[in-house]
Structure formats: C-alpha cells, structure tokens
Design brief:
single chain, about 120 residues, alpha+beta, three-stranded antiparallel β-sheet, 5 helices, about 45% helix
Length: about 120
C-alpha cells in the first residue's frame, strides 16, 4: 500500500521562521504553494478533516460533506495533492488521503517565532 504524491510537489521542512531571516526565492515558492492551496475555505476544511481524522487518514467518503458537489471536492483534493499537502491511496473503489509527513512541521516552522538571542 504505497502512498502517492507528485514528485515535484514534495514538501520538506525547508524554511526558517519568518523572523529569523528573509526567505530565499526557492523557500518562498515552496511556502507560497502550500499556503495558496490552503487559501480556499473548502480546501482548508478538507485539509483539516484529513489531518484531524482518526488514524491520520481519511476516506474521501468520510470528508466530502463540505457543502459543495462531489466533483468540486475531487477538484479541491487534487489541488491539495498537487501542492504536496496530501498523499492518496486507492483501496478498491475509495481513495484515502493523509497529510504528507513533513507538511505540518514545515508550515508551523515558517510561522514560528525564532528564539530570542541570548
């Protein structure tokens, strides 16, 4: 049961806290891709549903009640996958989603305040 993600969209903790130093162009591209994907309320709800689901993964059948049609849910899940935020695995007729392992760490690292200099 391997999880798939577009190779070019892998997210690795790459960026220092915003208060530590200016981001490089590459770090900014990575961060912008993640945050842009989450800037849509439906995507943010879907991402949250997957991240908070028991066992760390969710069947699309369990998270699709976000007030939009099923094709729209699929579109938003695809965008989250393309941004490297979600991994997916097909099991029979259902697709299960999980948060890419380093995503939450990468996003929180960017938004963390750097420790004060001693």
């Amino acid at each position: 049961m391997s999880k798939t993600s577009p190779p070019s969209a892998e997210v690795v903790p790459c960026c220092p806290p915003l208060t530590e130093r200016p981001m490089t162009a590459e770090e900014a591209e990575t961060a912008a891709r993640m945050f842009k994907a989450l800037s849509d309320p439906v995507r943010l709800r879907l991402f949250s549903a997957v991240a908070s689901h028991a066992g760390g993964e969710a069947c699309v059948c369990d998270i699709s009640d976000v007030g939009v049609s099923q094709p729209t849910v699929s579109h938003h899940l695809k965008k989250l996958k393309e941004a490297g935020l979600l991994l997916s695995e097909r099991r029979g007729t259902w697709v299960y989603y999980s948060v890419a392992p380093s995503v939450l760490a990468a996003m929180s690292q960017i938004l963390t305040t750097a420790p004060a200099a001693a």
